[in-house]
Amino acid sequence: SDSVNGVVKPRILLMGLRRSGKSSIQKVVFHKMSPSETLFLESTNKICREDVSSSSFVSFQIWDFPGQIDFFDPTFDYEMIFRGTGALIFVIDSQDDYVEALSRLHLTVTRAYKVNPDISFEVFIHKVDGLSDDHKIEKQRDIHKRTNTDLTDAGLEQIHLSLYLTSIYDHSIFEAFSKVVQKLIPQLPTLENLLNIFISNSGIEKAFLFDVGSKIYIATDSSPVDMQTYELCCDMIDVVIDISCIYGMPNTEAGLPHDKDSMAIIHLNNTTVIYLKEVTKFLAMVCFLRKESFARKGLIDYNFHCFKKAIQEVFDVRVKVQQSRKLLNQR
Ligand code: GDP
């Protein structure tokens, strides 16, 4: 199985009708393609497009409907795949008629739930960039009502679907992906706690833990997230990656232009400072603070050092548990 430093990566299945936007989402979120370039993406007919990108914290597979998935084909071992899946994202094209998509969604969810009731079911109501705000809410309400009616009729009202309004033309797709990934991280409450302690002891207003490769945030402190702050973080990561790619030392080991010692500071003209520091090979912390607090950078760096050590322990414990489970299974 895929692992990063022994930690098993969360596995995500991306499904939906052909042309609903799955490849575009993958290219934009994980491969830094610009949204307008996706217009020229070729339609592929491969059985599944696997992405076990070594530069990110998550791994996923893409499946197309129709064509690839035939639940009645005995050679198609969907059971094994659903068993190893953490989240199933179903992409619906909101600019198209979605009756067919909803029936596929229902079929998939009910099948998957029977095999693995622990899967989190995530529905991306996608391509909402062309819709007005009222129209978006309306679509979401309609899809919510129809899917729930279908599930209730099937006697499966215990299945919970989470709905997101997404578009590759703004940050909504990153925000939605962040929420999906966060659900798959068992250490999330611990990470949030550590971030809370870190910011309150350092005079920091907000801190995010980012998967640098995808700009997905895997945790933040418990103060509310506003979209503008999140977008600033994404922009900062882009700047850091771009500068590192141009001027940085190539880090051949992981093929990444940044390493565990990378850091960056940006002073905004409204007395806010954004401070980015690498935590591990994949993860970086991005903090928002006032200029006055940044004067005590020594304290922040010391607290950061403690935070980093704690994070390593959190992930190490998990590796040890996984290893001992493996040993037990071998007996
Ligand atoms: P797939 O068959 O599900 O992998 O779909 P593609 O990724 O090939 O996308 C089909 C088309 O939808 C492409 O022309 C994309 O440019 C377009 N598309 C994807 N995401 C969005 C979006 O968020 N908004 C808009 N307007 N178009 C999108």
Automatic annotation (TrEMBL):
Cellular compartments annotated: Cytoplasm; Lysosome; Lysosome membrane; Nucleus
Question: Which keywords does this chain's UniProt record carry?
Answer: Cytoplasm, GTP-binding, Hydrolase, Lysosome, Membrane, Nucleotide-binding, Nucleus
The molecular function terms of the Gene Ontology recorded here are: GDP binding; GTP binding; GTPase activity; GTPase binding; molecular adaptor activity; protein heterodimerization activity
Catalysed reaction equations from the record: GTP + H2O = GDP + phosphate + H(+)
GO CC term, one of those recorded = cytosol
The answer on whether this UniProt entry bears the keyword GTP-binding reads yes
Its domain of life? Answer: Eukaryota
Q: Its principal location? A: cytoplasm
Q: Its Gene Ontology biological processes? A: cellular response to amino acid starvation; cellular response to amino acid stimulus; negative regulation of autophagy; positive regulation of TORC1 signaling
Role this protein plays: Guanine nucleotide-binding protein that plays a crucial role in the cellular response to amino acid availability through regulation of the mTORC1 signaling cascade.
Q: Which family does it belong to?
A: Belongs to the GTR/RAG GTP-binding protein family.
The name of this protein is Ras-related GTP-binding protein
Question: What is the species of this protein?
Answer: Neolamprologus brichardi
What part of the full protein is here?
70 to 400 of 416
